[in-house]
Amino acid sequence: MDLTPMHKRVIALDVHQAKITACAVVEHDDGRVEVTKRDFGAFKRDRRALAQWALEMAPEVVVMESTGVYWKSPFAALEAVGLIAWVVNARHVKAVPGRKTDMADAQWLATLARAGLLRASFIPPVQMRQLRLVARQRQKLVGMCSAEKNRLHKVLVDAGIRINVLVADIHGQSARAMVKALIEGQPMHEVLNHKGRLRASRQELCEALSTEQFSAVHRFVAQEIVQHIEQIEQRIARMDQYLLQGLQPWQPQLRLLQTLPGIDEQGAAMLLVEIGADMSVFGSAERLASWVGICPGNNESAGKRKTGRIRKGNAWVRRLLCEFAQAAARTRCALKAKFDALTIRKGHKKSVVALAHKMLRTIYAMLSNGSHYQDKEVDYEALNVQRNAPRWIKMLRKHGFIATPAAA
Q1: For residue 97, what pLDDT is reported?
Q2: 304 to each of 297, 307, 308, 354, how far by Cα in Å?
Q3: Are the beta carbons of 92 and 119 closer than 8 angstroms?
Q4: Cα separations in angstroms, 213 against 15, 22, 202, 217
Q5: What pLDDT does residue 408 have?
Q6: CA-CA distances (angstroms) from residue 227 to 121, 137, 365?
Q7: CA 272, CA 385: separation in Å to the nearest integer?
Q8: CA angle, corner 106, sides to 105 and 112, nearest 5?
Q9: Which CA distances in Å does 221 have to 156, 158, 159?
Q10: Measured between alpha carbons, how far is 129 from 15 in angstroms, rounded to an integer?
Q11: Axis crossing angle, helix 334-346 with helix 315-328, rounded to the nearest 10
Q12: What is the pLDDT of residue 380?
């Protein structure tokens, strides 16, 4: 295929688990085009040899497909010698069917890159890439913890314990203390001493915590599950601390994101390591939404709009945004009004995705301009006075600026 070249020196890499196929296309001053093909291994010495060979070629562009996690090691090796590779989406570089080999893939990738038909994906800085591992492992642990909590719920129901009927969250402080007391075999009056501030009466809790069917097998399984839940929660807490310590240089951006309803400190940290703090690399909010895969899809033919299903993107960011959207829908802000209006027409799930899309565009504007979120339906001045006035008066009385009612 004849394509108008835009770059004279291009290297393309077809990366696999144990093999890296490289193709260099170099156009000389006399118009002669030289194609060089080489194979490298995937070990450390092979990656170093690849980086040195690429450095000697002095390429204008180095491109590779984003094949799972295999691209990360060659990318780091090239980055160490000063070459920043383009990691491109595999959907954009599909070759002609029936002509697929590793070398043909690399040469086709070099041809597209030489013609300027490829666009580099967003790759965060080294520190952000490393913190991504912590954030993504934390999301996995949260999923594991939720699964274990659901399993504990099923074991208790199987044993005839219906505490979930009276308690909204059986993993709250009081409910967990009562469940652990049951597992330890404490008498019922000691179990009920952990009631705390639960609204249910002691009589109702006594009936819900009946242990007639709570056998030794149920007790053993429930104890193992509770111990596993507590271990996972401790690991999550350590990861939270490590992630926040690693994001100390980006504290202004973290505080900025927390002004948006539905985003707490940990959510802001996990979002920041995924999308970064510099929005100029995306260029626009639309490109950021497309990269995440949270915007409506384009599927139109013969003037008819077919499906608007979202396409694949960054599933980690999409999951976070959907959690933020569901939390914001329970607050008193303009986002809740938007969600309620969408729910009437689209239903709950589509409304969550649409609100997540709106929040991502808002986040792009906040990080680009450095401005915090201001809700159009909230009177911040009046809200701050009403919320803080009792505390201010208390402190003034404490320090003697205002006389106490008894002294007056």
Answers
A1: 59
A2: 14, 10, 12, 22
A3: yes
A4: 58, 66, 20, 10
A5: 45
A6: 42, 20, 44
A7: 32
A8: 90
A9: 10, 12, 11
A10: 19
A11: 100
A12: 60
| Both tokens assigned to 34 | 């030289």
**Alpha helix (H) residue ranges in 184-333:** 188-192, 202-208, 216-246, 251-257, 265-275, 285-292, 315-328
CA distance 148 to 142: 10
Q: What angle do CA 346, 361, 285 make, to 5 degrees?
A: 120
Neighbouring residues of 9: CB distance < 8 A, sequence distance ≥ 6: 24, 25, 26, 27, 57, 58, 59, 60, 61
Q: What is the pLDDT of residue 394?
A: 84
pLDDT at 95: 58
User: For the chain, what's the residue count?
Assistant: 408
pLDDT digits (tens, 9 = 90+) for 322-363: 999 999 999 888 899 899 999 998 899 999 999 999 999 999
**pLDDT at residue 297, as a whole number:** 76
CB 58 within 8 A of CB 68: no
pTM metric for this prediction? 0.81
Dist CA 248 CA 333 (whole Å): 29
Mention every residue, 6+ apart, whose C-beta is less than 8 A from residue 113.
7, 10, 12, 61, 63, 86
112 Cβ contact partners less than 8 Å away, ≥ 6 residues apart: 3, 63, 92, 93, 118
Alpha helices (H) in 23-87, listed in sequence order? 44-57, 72-80
Cβ partners under 8 Å of residue 183, min gap 6? 219, 222, 223, 226
pLDDT at residue 1, as a whole number: 52
**Separation of alpha carbons 259 and 378, rounded Å:** 13
Q: What pLDDT does 304 receive?
A: 76
Low-confidence ranges of the chain (pLDDT < 70): 1-3, 94-100, 102, 378-386, 405-408
Name the residue type at position 84: I
Residues 66 and 121: their CA atoms lie apart, in Å, by 9
CB 360 within 8 A of CB 320: no
